[in-house]
Each structure stands twice: as structure tokens, then as C-alpha cells.
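User: Show me sequence and structure for the first protein, then do the same for the second.

Assistant: Starting with the first protein.
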Amino acid sequence: MTLSPAEIDALLLSLKIAAVAVAGALPFAILAASALTFGRFPGRFLLDAIVHLPLILPPVVMGYLLLISFGTRAPIGAWLLHTFDIRLVFSWSGAALAAGIVSFPFQVRAIRIALENMDPGLHQAAETLGAGPFDRFINITLPLALPGIIAGAITAFSASLGEFGAIITFVSNIPGETRTLPLAIYTAIQTPGGELAAARLAALSIGLALCGLIISEMAMRGIRQKLTGQVRS
């Protein structure tokens, strides 16, 4: 399968946006999952609802909310532009923000499942030996949650690659800047004679999604086996 330069640009841009989206959201996903798993505080239900809101809201709505928040005339967007000269709207960094927010619940859910399945006796034993909350989090919680962290990151990466509605609403469809694979497929479909290009890009998207799922499964199995061996030893 031979891709045109424009299609290669869309592929590379998609990979860059997805990588930045996952890397930027990962620390917040770990904190949110830890708070929802171990925290007992007022407003926990509200935090849980906000974290999972992108799962049920139409992506176009998320893009609209980003536009009225981070547009150059919106409060946050105007502040970022005038203070740090950062313009998110109509830029690839804005596309990464949109993809990161839409895929955020996938990371939180995977990490939360891993945290909820931990043996609480390990934390109690570490606390008995004098380990503080920060030491327990770094040396016990994070290593044992690693399969969930990796699975969540890979799932969110795949979801970011396929994000369409929030990106096109927030940063539009600009070749070389915000035109990712889904937007390139949409453009090809709208172009007379673009059926073959749309088919190529669709096949490429399916291949990337399958690779993501396979890598996620292999990584989870390998790390789970390693951690199980360490606990038993």
C-alpha cells in the first residue's frame, strides 16, 4: 500500500497528537484513579461523573466546550495567548488537548481497575514497617498498577488516533496542522474520486487499532506475570 505525501503527513500527525495526548493526560489519570479508588472525600461522586463525562457526551459537544473555553476570545484561551503566547485553537496542540480529554476516561478506568484489584495487605504490611503514604504510592501502588497504566495508555492512544468530532470542532481540518487520519478519511470521502484514498486510510486505521490492542494485551500479560513472580518470590 503506497501512501501519498499528504496521507503520510496525516499518519505522522495522528501519531504525534495521540502520543502527546496520552503523555499529557497520564499523570492526571493516575491521580484521578487513585483519588477515586482510595479517597473518601465530599464530591467524590461529582469527580467520578466529571472524569467519565467524555464517554457519554458527543465528541462534538466536547469540541464546542473546548472552543468556548480555549478559543482566542474565551477566558482561558485569551489568557494563554496573551500571557504565554500559546494558541490552542486551530493548532495541533489543541488537537492533542481534545484527544487527551476525550480519551482520558479510558486511562482512568484501566488504572482504577488495577488499583481496586491490589491486595490491601501489602499496603498494611508496608505501613507496619514504617513506610509513609508517598513511599507506599511510589514503591507499591505504581508498580502493581503498571499493567493497568500501560493498558490504559495504549487504549487511550488508540482512541486518540480515532478521535474526530472534538478535533474537527475545536481545531478544524487544516492540512499539515490538524488533519489527522479520521479527518483525512472524511476529506477523501467528500472529494470526488477519493474513494481509493479513503479505503487506504481506513485500512491503515484498522491496522493501527489492531496493533494497539495486540500490544496492550501482550504488555499486560508480560507485566502481570512478572509482578506475580515478584510477589511470590
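Switching to the second protein now.
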Amino acid sequence: MSAIADAVPGDAPTGLVDPGYRSVALRAGGLAGRWRLRALLVCAGLVVAAVTLAAVGLVVGDYPLTLPQVLAALTNDPDAGFARTVVVDWRLPRVLAGLVFGAALGAAGGAFQSLTRNPLASPDVIGFSTGSYTGALLVIIVIGGGYLQVAGGALVGGILTAGVVYLLAWRRGVQGFRLIIVGIAVAAVLASFNTWLMLTANQELALTAAVWGAGSLNGTTWDQAIVGGGLVLVLLAAGAALGPGLRQLELGDDAARATGTRAEPVRLTVMLIAVALTAVVTAAAGPIAFVALSAPQIARRLTRSPGIAVAPAACTGALLLVGADLVAQHALPTALPVGIVTVVAGGAYLVWLIIREVRHRA
């Protein structure tokens, strides 16, 4: 990625539109676009903060290490000894999974909130996470499969749920508010079904499903980090290619069609990618709530952008999940699954967001 030009308000070259804010043109491979300078700096700051928290996650723990010991382990220093096992085999997969999975949840939430133009729209609220949970539960309880089978069940469950919500919300197109209401209703039905599955399963399987359902990065292995992380990176790259179409949809379907954007195919493809991102994370770590809901709004306030930008949302999601996992591991009297920490923090955020929306509409 390389900067090829920059501009400030009032000095745009002749023939170009002055955007009214500092911007930087970037090109990566076959993709090119113009970024707000503030958004670019915020993303850089978020990445630095997330990497710093990740480094803290490698240092602290029941077997505390110093930063030089961590660097020696990462560089395969022969003097690293047991520190290499602690860092490379135990802590590094968890930290990388936190970064990549957090970015996936942030990007998925940003895509949904951009499509619906509603801050309450996220895979948690409109049922796609619950659908992934249902698919994984069926595999765990009925089939008793391993990680790959559970991952497949979560992916199929999320996509089927998205299809049902999309069809039920369809009325000469899909409007954001109707999509959210239908999604909440479908999520309630699926949550009841999930409870029935847990009550009818034998005790051992129900306990396994309950622990997994709390949403945790405990015991994350290299297989989960590599497979899940690889899928997330492929999906993020596919989503980046649809970025221009997504920005056109923010202007409304009529305006998007006027510029040559095929509104429904782009919307459906973006939804499928966002659902797949959520399903991959759910399959690897269980349902981790509220990161997808809060990350896009935090990013929008940091960047002061008029709409939702997916890239800052992804960076914010990575920071939130790595930070929440550190709190879950080390800041509480008892170590907890990270999903419980995000639920507690995200629940308070959701209440604040609903009160703010009600006051704004009053």
C-alpha cells in the first residue's frame, strides 16, 4: 500500500473535487481509494494500541516473562528454553486469535450498520450470531463432531439464519429497520430452541456446549488460529473489494443505482461475507457478543466520519477483544471467558445507545 498523493481543503488540483477535509490517496494491488487523513491516523493508533495490548498478553500470566524473554522466544533464540513453549505454544495463538477475531467482528458489525444505517444493527442483535450458535449446538449435541464439524455447523447455521431473515424482511427490497425487527424476532425463536437443546441433552454434552457457548479464547490452538484467521483474512479481502459499492448504498438504493451499482446483489453479498465472518469467529471461540455492536460506533466517533467505515471498525474490534481478554484473564479475582466480559461491558453500552436513540428521535 502506498501513498500516491495528498490534498488539503482548498488546494485540490484543477479538475478534482475538493472533499473539504484532509485526505490521502492509497493504492493496494488492484484497489485504490481516498482515505480521510484523520481516519488513517486513528487506524494507525488503534493498531499500535492493539499490538501493545497483545504484547502485554504475551508477557503477563501465571508464568510471568520479561519483554526480552518474549522477543527471544519469538525469534527462536536457543537460550529461550521454557519461555518459548509458554509464548509460542500457549499464549501466541490466543493473542493472534484475539486480534484477528476482534477485527472480524468489528468489520461484520460495521458492514451491517452501514447497510442498514442503524447503530443497533449487528450480528448479535439481528440473530446471525444466534443462528451460528444453533448450528454449532446441533453439531455438538446431536452429531458430537470435532472443531471442523462445529465450524461447519456454525457457518451453515449463520448463513441459513441470514437467508431466513433476509426473505422475511424482503418487501420490494430490504429496509434496515425491518431487517432489525425481523432479526430480533428470529433470534428470540432460535434462543428458545437453543435452550430446549441444552435441556434435553445429556449432562456431559450440555456442560461442553455451555462452556463453549460462553465465548472464550481459552485453549485456542494453532489449528484454530491458523484456520480461523486464514478464513477471516480471505473474507476481509473480499469485503474490501465491495467497499465502493457499500459506500454507494449508504446514499440510498436509488442513488446507488444511478451510479451503476447493483444494489441488491451488492447488499446480499456484503451480508453473506459479514455472516461468514461472524460464523468463523463463533465456530472457533463461541458467540462473543457486543464487539460487533460497539466497535463501529466507537470508530465513527474517533474518526468523526459521517458514516460507518469498516476498516476503522475492524481495528477497533481487534483492540476491544484483545483488551477484554486481558481483563478476563488477569483483572478479575477469577479468570472468566472473554464473552462474559464483553456481555457485561456491551450490555451497559447497549442501554446507553438505546436511551440516546430514543432521546434523539423524541
